[in-house]
Design a protein that fits this description.
With 299 residues, the chain is of the alpha+beta class. β9 and β10 form a beta hairpin. The strands form three sheets. Strands 8-9-10-11-12-7-13 form a seven-stranded mixed beta sheet. A four-stranded antiparallel beta sheet has the order 1-2-3-4. Helix content is 36%, strand content 27%.
């Protein structure tokens, strides 16, 4: 399906996978948002649309009820494209990586604000596989206790296991009260889409079975040549130690060739922030929001 020229946008479609995959391969991303899996599975929740400006791909979305734009993708002049779109629309660019933000530091037109809630957590893969040293005492203890209490089977998720994982997602959603939370409903829909395209999206996943039932799952894919990004990381309610156990079992099998693990953002949720920080990140992948200093300069 043809991608229209800016300022025309159309909804993101499954047929866009090839062009976006190629763009990300040529311009390796560090931001977790920039895999086709993430964009497609969250396309309805975020209202993703696509356009083209010369050699650049431009994504737009509905962020908190307002139109926003994502960092341009491709070999073209991203700085020029950002300025033009902001002057045309008075909107804002979100999830802008730090390296791109630097190019606007001395631009009098642009105001940049750090978006801490959407910063990605980056870890050394070997740290999370080996769990060595005092800083990981707690994780090792949780795993040891889980193994002493439960007899479990690690399962590499393949197409024939996907229906089991979908049933687990449904149970997990009931336990978490998804019906009372739009964000959890959106996440549940994204997970189902992800699993529905599990093979064609080249995803990696592992699960734990206890008593013959899936009770935890981890789903990931390559973000760039040396980073594995974790899209889904879930465990059954009330089973202490299940999260560090499934995570370590999965990474030990699937992350041996990766240098880094990207665990995505915490969305400003205090419990999620505490959990991700407990894995000892080596750094945050910082992101920024760009807007015009003065909307009066709009064309």
């Amino acid at each position: 399906m043809r991608i229209p020229e800016y300022p025309v946008f159309r909804p993101l479609e499954l047929e866009d996978k090839a062009v976006l995959d190629d763009a990300f391969k040529r311009n390796p991303p560090e931001n977790s948002e920039y895999t086709f899996t993430n964009l497609y599975c969250w396309r309805q929740a975020h209202g993703f649309s696509l356009s083209r400006m010369e050699d650049l791909l431009i994504l737009s979305s509905q962020e908190r009820g307002a139109r926003a734009y994502y960092p341009p993708i491709g070999p073209g002049d991203a700085h020029k494209a950002v300025i033009k779109i902001l002057l045309d629309t008075g909107g804002r660019f979100v999830r802008v990586p730090e390296q791109m933000k630097f190019s606007f530091d001395k631009d009098p037109l642009i105001h940049a604000v750090e978006d801490r809630d959407n910063a990605d957590y980056l870890f050394l893969a070997q740290d999370l596989i080996r769990l060595e040293g005092r800083k990981f005492d707690g994780k090792r203890n949780f795993i040891r206790n889980f193994r002493s209490k439960y007899q479990y089977e690690y399962v590499t998720v393949t197409a024939d296991v996907v229906p089991e994982v979908l049933r687990f997602q449904d149970v997990w959603c009931v336990e978490k009260g998804c019906s009372q939370s739009k964000s959890l409903l959106d996440e549940g829909e994204a997970v189902k889409i992800m699993l529905g395209h599990f093979v064609s999206f080249s995803l990696k996943a592992g699960a734990l079975r206890v008593g013959g039932r899936i009770c935890a799952v981890c789903i990931a894919e390559a973000l760039n040549a040396d980073t594995l990004v974790i899209h889904v990381f879930k465990g059954a309610h009330g089973m202490a130690g299940i999260y560090p156990t499934v995570f370590n079992e999965f990474l030990s099998r699937e992350a041996y060739a990766s240098r880094f693990i990207n665990m995505e953002q915490d969305l400003g949720i205090a419990g999620l922030r505490k959990s991700k920080e407990s894995y000892q990140p080596v750094r945050l992948v910082r992101k920024f929001t760009l807007s015009l200093v003065d909307e009066k300069v709009r064309i």
